[in-house]
TrEMBL record:
InterPro entries reported for this sequence: ATPase_NBD, Exopolyphosphatase, GppA/Ppx_hydrolase, Ppx_GppA_C, Ppx_GppA_N, PyroPPase_GppA_Ppx
All residue ranges annotated as the Ppx/GppA phosphatase C-terminal domain in the record: 313-487
CC cofactor: Mg(2+)
Keywords, comma-separated and alphabetical: Cell membrane, Hydrolase, Membrane
Membrane topology recorded in Swiss-Prot or TrEMBL: Peripheral membrane protein
Protein name, UniProt field: Exopolyphosphatase
Amino acid sequence: MTDINTPSPREIAAIDIGSNSFHMVVARIVGQSLQIISRHKQRVHLASGLDEHQNLNQAAIQRGLNCLAMFAERLQGFEPENVRIAATYTLRQARNVHIFLKRAEGLIPYPIEIIPGTEEARLIYLGVAHTQPDSGKKLIVDIGGGSTELVIGDDFNPQLAYSKHMGCVSYNQEHFKNAKISKKNFNAAQLAAQQKIESIASKYQQCGWETAIGSSGTIKAIREVLIAKGHSDGVITAKRLQWLEEEILAFKNSEELSLDGLSDDRKPVFAAGVAILSGVFKSLAIKEMIFSDGALREGLLYEMEERFRHSDIRTRTAEAMAQQYHIDTAQAERVRTTAEAIYAQIETHPSLAKSELQPLLSWGALLHEVGLSISYPGFHRHSAYLLRHCTMPGFNLEQQTVLATLVRFQRKSLKLEEMPVLSIYKRKHLYPLIRTMRLAVALNGQRTDTPLPKLKVKANKEEWTLTLPSNWQHDNKLLAADLIKEQEYWHKAGWQLNLDPSPHEPD
């Protein structure tokens, strides 16, 4: 019998909001391993709802929301830290994504992370690496509805990762209009895929790999057709792809496609998927490819549970970036230490766990001077640009936006109307971080190792009080002047910074 006092195993879940399908996988932590206990998949065809202006139509939005509502039923009782939802190409592209995200808030109580293409590639690699027994260097190809990810790595470490804007849904719309199949259409799609890969092909071939692995729906569908044909090993080769192309071209319309092993819901985008994979095979001179069940959602699961991480990838990313841009690490550490000390003293927004934002403050402090590598004038703006647009493994787009916002508002005037629109967080969540960062930067303006005066911070919404020793201004006249200037910046933004005692007061 099971001991009733034994705690139930922790259950975690990951949702992949793809361009063609939404996937959810639920797993149980058992000892040092993950045990998948359920998988759910819904064909949503989100990418087909993008119009020429890159707006999602209402029908596609509703299909996506209906699916999330269904997934939410399975996740009742799950704590926020046990669920990750990642959105990929279509929501990256959609100009009206805020509408989808706002309506989703009322259906599923977990934040939706929109992840960059390179981050999608990294997580796909992680998912395959954890579920594939093969060791050695691997090339992983994942053809989705809107993008294709190509990654080379060894063990659990991706070494080369790109995401290309080519997917079975987008290519079907572009090259197989009105479901028409022809040799001309197929060749055009295949050539377009080769052109997308042209700029990175030599880099991948030079890096090399021992095993080529395909993941996700397109490559799985190709494998199932090959198995139905009699290729029981399910290995995809250039010769078998050529046979498959000829089989497809025997039909004039995708609706008429009739191939053993091909499901009805895959038919509309199958020709486009085969054309993309054929282009990848030709560009990279791939000899053969096997299939893996692991993909983005498994990558999310394995990264969620700390026992499966070698270390926090985001910390490694921030430290590598600091080194790359020759940051003054001593100054960055001073600002980080001060910021953490201040943030620990204040009460943040009650609906948001402090642990969610404190790491972003620490990484922002570490990287706040990254823009000095461009020039000193306006370096806070340069820093913001780099943090918003650089490839930062481990960070989703929202997290990069938060980092960019923190360093953008670390100094000078507070033009808060320039703050970007956020989806997971609200502006009021970021204001305490910005105030903390500004105080930490101002207090360390002398860039010396001399310890700061002992300080206390009390926060009451927009009014903060910074308390320092009674005689601090005698020995810190320059700091006093900097803090008075900081008071002025706060006042113009509608905030209030009290200095206790005030440098204006007589001795």
